[in-house]
Amino acid sequence: MPKVSLVIPAYNIEPYIRRCIQSVKDQTFTDFEAIVVDDASTDGTNAALMEAIGDDNRFHVVRHERNRGRHLTRRTAAALVSGEYAFCLDGDDELTPDFLKQAVSRMDEHPVDMLHVGITVIPENGVTQAEADGFAAYINRPTGLLNEADILRVIFDESSGQLVDWRVTQRLYRASLFKTAFERMTDARLERAEDSYEVFVLAALSQTADGFESCRGYLYHYGIGVTGTSRISAERFGIFCSEFAECIQSTRDFIATCTDGDEMQDSCRGMIHKLLELLANDWLIRVDPSEQEEALTAFADAFNDAVVARELYRFVRDIAYSAIASEKPLPKDSDAHRLYAYAEKFAATMGAADGQEVTRAVRMKDVADEHMRYLERKDLEEQYAKQPIRILVTSHKDVDVSHALSLQPIQVGPGQQQGHTRFNWMLHDDIGDNITEKNPMYCEMTTQYWAWKNITDAEYVGFAHYRRYFNFTDTIYKENPFGEVMDTFIDSQTARAYGFDDETIRTCIEGYDLITTGVKDIRKFPGSAETPLEQYHAAPLLNPRDIDTMMALVVEMHPDFAEDVHTFLNGHKQCFCNMYIMRKPIFDAYAAWVFPLVDEWCARTDMTHYSREALRTPGHLTERLFNIWRIHMLRTEGKDWKVKELQCVHFTNPEKKQAFRPLFAERLDVSLEQVVPVVFAADNNYAPILSVAIDSMLKNADSTRFYDVVILHTNIGGNKQAVLQKYFSRYANARITFFNVWRMVKDYKLDTNNAHISVETYFRFLAQDILSAYDKVVYLDSDLVVNGDVAKLFDIDLGDNLVAATHDIDYLANLNVRGGDRMKYSLEVLDMNHPYEYFQAGVMVFNTRELRRLHSIVEWLQIASNSIYIYNDQDILNQECQGRVTYIPAEWNVTHNIFGRVDTLYPQAPEAVYADYLAGRAHPQIVHFAGAIKPWQNASCDMAQYFWQYARETPYYEVIIQDMTPGARKDSDITEVFHERALSDASPLRKIIDPIAPYGSARREALKVLGRTLRGRK
After folding, report:
1. What is the share, in percent, of the chain residues with pLDDT greater than 90?
2. What are phi and psi of 23, to 5 degrees?
3. How far is CA 392 from CA 225, 397, 444, 447, in A?
């Protein structure tokens, strides 16, 4: 029996097989056999092989009658192995003469199942030496002694740290292991990635392994065969994809046969991820750019869209990082932008992919975006520096800004607050010569100092604020009593309205020396102040003496300004906000005048006991100092200046539109398939009740799942949000996000026709876009409590159906009420083909992917603006989703008994629905307090005990009790009216009569009175 059996597959390698065989014959260790399998070569491989072997009887040649691929070629040879050890050598590679001697000696001295050896990488066919060196560095990473499961983990599991290669040719095996492993491997043809599969099986069956990477006698010719940089077609790449997929599937099939298969899953995922990276690298390097888009389709077909998106984002990350490291700009036509566009295309359709793959794609996108934003900022800075007009927009918040290059956002004091986010897309006042540390006192003046010291070439320098801009157009807009034009958002519409584009700004400014906001007559403002001095003295948070001492200082340092100080302080006019635009030399002169004054005033003033607002006094004073300087200059050396006044536009909501980031993108320990996204909708006054719903849900949640809870609202106060965030932080497997949807709904007239239904009910339509990272979400009304785990609800398979919901027993019973016209309404208004399929919308699972395909948010809200519906959004959903509903047991939405309807109305529902309701009522997973009577209005109403058992533990329990007390004094920020209703005068109750409370009945009148009370009406 030979000591070593060499396994050598050969297929169409006539140019290389001779040197391979000769390198084996030249071994100083001679106790070996070489099993060479010719896989039906069609060139002169067989003849060259036989010639090279000659009469050396240590070589055994086997020839396949038909080509079977490298894996089956090795499997053929493995069955013939008779040595103590086995080693795989590819027929286009070779060995140094002492290789076997070194490897066998090490194996004899330290016996293991697998010995990992090093290799020498020789570049071929266009592979550069740098590429070869990089590959060698990876492939020769040192390993140590490993046992059992660690062997597989260190090779494949990404969490193990630095992974070892999986080349089957880089290991000396115990022959018994080698033969057993290949016997268990598939008899299917595998190519390209067969090494990964074979080593996976070998490692999984090994008990011990060691490393001997200093032995580098295997000479690997990198670039020969399937590796290298030679071009391949999109069709050929598609074949590669199929071959990789087959190897992956074979690995999964093997795992399924193992009793410890679950422990191998992380290693399997690691193998797959590395294979996908290798495959993507082939796409980038070897597929002609003209065919790359076509090849990506094959990539996605073989795997999924998330895989493709992730690999493309990886390339973007790497290209961007290279540009950052080299400090070179990234051209607009760079591969990074082209690849990013490809990535976005596949990211938009990756929802159907495996959750972990989606998670990987999202996280890689985050890194790519971060790198690209950095480069874009550097590029933007260069563009800003080239502008002849530089109007700096001071901000300390992440806000919307105009895209005009003349309007340049600058973050002030970015390092002054602990944990303060640095906005990379802005300029920063802590770069270069600066006084950023003075921002808490100097306010926007730290921007002006930065401009003074760091802007050299601009023709004009100006200043605005993240909330206040100039109106650069000739249109005069209505102003408020304080002389400001009020608006909401900074977007494309307002940019057009106020001329936030470079051409309009240039036209407006060019030729002028000094531009300010309007010089306003203080006597026309609200209040009794008539002069700037009186106005400052009346400011409740400022110290009156400060303006007096500053004015005295101005006269002391600049006696020629005394007249101007008097004119300003005792006059009636002032321009506000420290907003102005000047020719750069004029601004430099102003800065050289104002900063010494402020610095000297600060040096003379003890502000030790000043309040936070009073500490901003230097900023307040400079607003007055500018007016004095303007008056003086226009009176003296600037009397020939060309000056202009522009309206000041005040934006109430300049903050960026809120963007939702899914939980799995925020937490590295969470994958998509673990997450249960849950959506609620509420207003400020309903927050206490909402807290009960969420708390009940999380108390019954699965500890192994993660609950991404999103609250859609327009007005929940910051204090309430903070209280709830702090309270729910006790749940380690949950995250609470308050998402303000005002921008999304402000242009729609949303109304309801029931006093107990609020406009927030329409917010559920927004979930499909806000939570677009999820293709399925749970929606829950806020007037309910959860006794079960909503993960079970979320896990329901919807297929292509749009929603999952329970039958609405109340509605279905009304269909059967004699003399009622609910059936007519269902058929004629809702246009339902099967009215008995009507569902209740308070508890639902949304197939957001399919809902997006059905209607856009704009279309949903347009439908919702129609006043023909009795039950508003619920009717709309039933109308639009009919025929595509998955019905769930009634236990998931058990409505309570008000007005005796459980006894009088519900029995009229179809028998199956009624029986289902009774069964659910006995063991409710969710109790839904639908209708006009709630536990927080009537503590003893039906099923109220379910509410109170959870309410007692919430932070708003006392508030809920207080609000039940007639005449109780209520904190406006906490209670007011409990729920802001939306029954407008323009939307009367529908003519369709509800059998439960027909017109003229005492019950109807009671509901109307209750509705008015809840809305604060008499």
Report:
1. 71
2. -65, -30
3. 59, 14, 10, 8
Please choose, from the candidates 805, 953, 939, 786, the residue with its C-alpha nearest in 3D space to the C-alpha of residue 873.
805
pLDDT at residue 989 greater than cutoff 70: no
Q: Are 446 and 412 in contact (CB under 8 A)?
A: yes
Domain count, the chain: 3
Residue 1005 lies in a domain: no
Q: How far is CA 117 from CA 133, 168, 337, in A?
A: 17, 11, 41
Residues 76 and 141 occupy one common structural domain:
yes
pLDDT tens sequence across 60-98:
999 999 999 999 999 999 999 999 999 999 999 999 999
Domain boundary among 613, 635, 651: 651
Q: Which token pair is 795?
A: 């896990």
Written as one string, the DSSP assignment of 37-82 is EE---SSSHHHHHHHHHTT-TTEEEEE-SS--HHHHHHHHHHHH--
State whether 627 and 697 are in the same domain. no
Based on the fold, state whether residues 455 and 603 are members of the same structural domain: yes
Q: What is the DSSP letter of 840?
A: E
Are residues 679 and 630 part of one domain? no
Cα 709 to Cα 778: distance, rounded to the nearest angstrom:
9
pTM (whole model) above 0.70: yes
- H-helix or E-strand spanning residue 997: none
Are 555 and 609 in the same domain?
Answer: yes
Environment class of residue 507 by beta-carbon count within 10 Å: exposed (0-12), middle (13-18) or buried (19+)?
A: middle
Under a CB-based contact definition with an 8 Å cutoff, are residues 550 and 621 in contact? Answer: yes
At residue 1018, the pLDDT reads 35
Q: Are residues 746 and 874 in the same domain?
A: yes
What would the two tokens of residue 422 be?
Answer: 């640095």
Domain boundary among 212, 244, 276: 244
Q: What's the CATH number where 794 sits? A: 3.90.550.10
375, part of any domain: no
The whole-number pLDDT of residue 162 equals 61
Cα torsion 556, 559, 565, 570: sign = positive
User: Residue 282 carries which DSSP code?
Assistant: H
Inter-residue contact 205 to 151 (CB < 8 Å): no
On whether residue 20 sits in a domain, the answer given is yes
Distance CA 238, CA 230 (A): 16
The secondary structure of residue 989, as a DSSP letter, is P
DSSP state of 212: E
Out of 506-510, 700-704, 897-901, pick the least confident: 897-901
Are 812 and 740 part of one and the same domain? yes
Reading across the β-sheet that carries 648-651, which strands appear in turn?
A: 468-470, 648-651, 484-487
Across 394-403, 513-522, 529-538, 720-729, least confident range: 394-403
Are residues 81 and 217 located together in one domain of the fold? yes
User: CA separation (Å) from 590 to 453, 564, 583?
Assistant: 13, 15, 11
Q: What Å distances lie between residue 131 and 121, 229, 275, 314, 526, CA to CA?
A: 10, 11, 18, 19, 74
Sequence-separated (6 or more) residues with CB below 8 Å from residue 182: 74, 75, 78, 79, 198
Give the domain range for residue 429: 386-651
pLDDT tens figures, 178-203: 999 999 999 999 988 999 999 999 99
C-alpha distances in angstroms, 435 versus 34, 394, 418, 598, 995? Answer: 77, 14, 18, 13, 73
**What are the residues whose beta carbons fall under 8 Å from the beta carbon of 703, sequence distance 6 or more?**
733
Q: At 244, is the pLDDT very low, low, confident or very high (cuts 50, 70, 90)? A: very high
**DSSP calls for 934-947:** -TTTSTTSTTHHHH
Residue pair 404/465 in contact by the 8 Å Cβ criterion: no
pLDDT recorded at residue 1000? 37
- Whether 485 and 478 have beta carbons less than 8 Å apart is answered as yes
In a domain, 295, yes or no: no
pLDDT > 60? residue 226? no
